[in-house]
Fold these 2 entries.
Entry 1:
Amino acid sequence: MDLLSAMRAFVRVYESGSFSIAAKHLAIGQPAVSKSIAQLEDHLGNKLFLRSTRGLTPTDAAQTFFEHATRTLDEAELALRSVRGEPASLSGRLRVGGTITFIRQHVIPNMAAFLEQHPGLEIDLLLDDGNIGLVEEGAEVAFRMGRLPSSGLTARRIGQCRRIVVATPAYFARCSTPGRPQDLADHAAIVFSRGEGGEQLTFASGDKSVATQTIVLKPKLRISALEGVRAAVLAGLGIAVASEWIFTDELASGQVCVALADWELPRLDLWAVLPGGRHASPKARAFITFVEHCLSLTPYGLR
């Protein structure tokens, strides 16, 4: 058995959920794919797929083997290209998790160059503001905001941004601009109900002689997605405490304004997160480097 060829067949079957689709991708017959998987199962002493009339279901052994097989194939491909003196182009499939607004605003607009550099790479973007589980979604890397829960995840901080008090000029003209943190109690608050959202906030003054101020917002709207918070603010429905990068373009154009600029909230960290105990694959490392470059073009990269 050619172990690398069998691993390639396994990865394609795992990703596509089909022997026939895997065979088309590999440009070989379906019987050859079935034989490779059978030989691999004999070699490992474990079933990799459960066959039924509804299709293929990967076993626990397959899920574990997939993580190692994809990394092994990536490293083998890079080794061959290095010896041949070829550019280190990546191929295969990369599943990336992240928050909708951050990826939409700061990653997707810059992806053309990355995809052109790696034409053989397929990327699945798993976007959700709820910090979906890496293992559950099969993501190799995810970009998460704020404090990370204590877990077995491997994380590296790659960015940081301010949290700001923001609303439209029309809202401030109608309801007044707060001059002190406690003034926020008189405003209709739009609250992000997940992650770093919430109703209790602690402000620190730029004047170190002034004590910190802890206030509790009075939510008019609680919204579970950052895109909803953004839309509500732009519609003039109230005032929000939000990550600065959500409103990058609107702040530059004057469509929204910042209040309490002399006060600061704890900054929000951006993390590149890997499943626990796993070293980043070449594909994941390259994508993290790409995102770090995107951030370096903004005020949010680490200096």
Note: Residues 163-266 form a domain with the D-Maltodextrin-Binding Protein; domain 2 fold (CATH 3.40.190.290).
Entry 2:
Amino acid sequence: MTHSIVIPLFNKADYIIETLESLVMQTKRPDELIIVDDASTDDSLTIAKEYLQKQPLFCEHCRVEFIELAENGGPGNARNIGLERAKGELISFLDADDLYHPYLLSIANWKFGAEKLDFMILNIEFMPGREVYPDIDALKKYLTPISEDLYEVKDPLRAVTSPHFVMGVGSNVVVKRKWLQSIRYVVNSTLHEGIDFWYRVLKHILAQTQANIGLLTGNYLRVREVKGSLSRKIYPNYKEIELPPVFSRYKNSKDINDRLLVGMIGRRWYAHSFASLCSVKQKLFFALHYSYLLPQLIVYSIIRIML
């Protein structure tokens, strides 16, 4: 199957060569690489172009396209623009500081074909700490072994709303492009926009067909923990912290999985935001301002215990 990779690029001059090298070293090269430069203010774009110019064999077998945006629109916007240009049967997004294992594209191609997958989630190894997520033991009731390193995900929407599951972090999904025709990332959102996007994609697939959803373990995606990245930003004022898009999208939903998603993300968002504020005063203001959310998060915790 043909495979397109979209890289949103913004100020990753220190990492982009290593990321691209992880693609050049693939045992099955991608068929298409689309790099969307989101108005970088460093040398990221120049470095990427110069590196790929030195890889003629890779470029001979992979269509490479650079898209240069005049204004920074955020990673969701960059991914949307790259997605519009992609033509591969499979598509994945790779952050410009993360790495693919050399066998990932080959294994993805094999698993999608042999197991007739529609959607495959990758487990993650964080760098440099080497923590691995998700915790397979905590998810046993949702997983059925299919083949080496691959599990079928049963009751997928319930599984991905578990606090032990990780989807949409480090763009850890490979999917058939046909399922993305009508779904796009929320623009101008920087927290949990990946989880929101992939949950909507998964709901769309399951509404259309008896889909095969897989979880690939084996640490084929390495996600770099970069100080100063959007997910590790320190906020001087609580008013700068935005609510995740799932809050407004599903606040009135009666669907239990939607409600579980809001609760799961709500707990992560609340803890992360509280820790990201730089003063005790701002933490107090944050807790008071969002005190109305606490009953919902408590109810979520109780429901999860009962499931």
Note: The radius of gyration is 19 Å.
